[in-house]
Amino acid sequence: MNEFDRTRLLDMLDEACSLQLALAGKTRPDLDDYLVANGVRHAIALIGEAASQVTAETRQQYPEIDWKDIIGMRNFVIHHYHRVSLDVVWDTATHSIPILIEQLESILPDSGTDLSQPLS
Fold first, then answer.
1. Distances (CA, A) of 26 to 13, 40, 44, 75
2. How many domains is the chain built from?
3. pLDDT for 91
4. 6, 8, 42, 79: which one is catalytic?
5. Assigned domain for 117 exists
6. 28 catalytic, yes or no?
7. Which residue in 12, 13, 27, 76 is deepest, having the highest Cβ count within 10 Å?
8. Is 74 a catalytic residue?
9. Looking at the domain assignment, is residue 119 inside a domain?
10. Residue 56: what pLDDT?
11. Active-site residue among 74, 80, 82, 83?
12. Rounded to whole angstroms, how far apart are CA atoms 92 and 46?
């Protein structure tokens, strides 16, 4: 994997871990708060943006990652933000993101992520 792709995968992992940490102790009704919902949507968009920049070669090397859905969710959140269901956002953040974290950590075993500490 080239350094550019490694950096984008680390960006995805950092943002996913930060999102998971930010949502610790929160429940679906917390998304009714505009700032919380907007922050979660933004994190999902950043993850998708980084994913969209990963080369096709690296994406093919890691087919277990659902690149199409990650990038598609980014596009939907950015371009159709007014139609994004908060239930879908919550499901993505609480079910899909933890799976993505596991997948990225297996690809990047030396990433040094620690969910007990905020990432910068």
1. 20, 12, 17, 25
2. 1
3. 96
4. 79
5. no
6. no
7. 12
8. yes
9. no
10. 97
11. 74
12. 13
